[in-house]
Amino acid sequence: MDPIQAINDDRHLARSHDDANADLCFLALSDEGQPSVRTLVLREVSDSGLTLFINSTSPKWQIIQENPAAELLLWYHSIQRQYRVTGRIEQLDRSVIEKNWPRRPAGSKYLDHSYGTLADQSSVLASRQSLIDHVTRLRESRPEDDLTTPTSATGVILIPDTIECLDLNRADRIHERKRYFRHNNGWVTEHLMP
Ligand SMILES: Cc1cc2nc3c(=O)[nH]c(=O)nc-3n(C[C@H](O)[C@H](O)[C@H](O)COP(=O)(O)O)c2cc1C
Question: Hey, which of 56, 103, 172, 186 has its CA 20 to 30 A from 94?
């Protein structure tokens, strides 16, 4: 079984069950031994890897520059299946974000334009009101149609080395745990003790 196909099939199934995690993932990074994890929208899963959109003013982008090794977690409660994907992160070609960014909701576009102009993502604000005032001024001075993709909007791809699937959805309660790793342009499967 191709694990990329398995993830896509399971995302599809999870969506059909209105699973709140169907379009999300949890990305773990390590910054000189300090772990960090965050929720992200999982944009696409393909043979090339798992695509994410982030902002280059964020701490996670700095960490990725220093250490591109990552682990990404998927948990689909509706089908009782977990995936852990390990690999390395690379930046995507600018054209990918240029194509997708214009489809973002207006509020997200104005927030994206506030990174860099007001403050970097995850940095300390003088107050919440300072952010509200900044976004309000932006909205008044620039109609949505004038907003172009900010240079800090960035697409990245996690290229998997291993994909592990834990399936809890077994009537006999004997969970199934499989790990896939790359070999000769394909994937080899091994069974792990769940
Ligand atoms: C449901 C949900 C979806 C999110 N999607 C994204 C996303 O696609 N891209 C992103 O950069 N941050 C997203 N975030 C925010 C991140 O979890 C995180 O707070 C932010 O990117 C700053 O992370 P950092 O300080 O580790 O760099 C999302 C948060 C939630 C709760």
Answer: 186
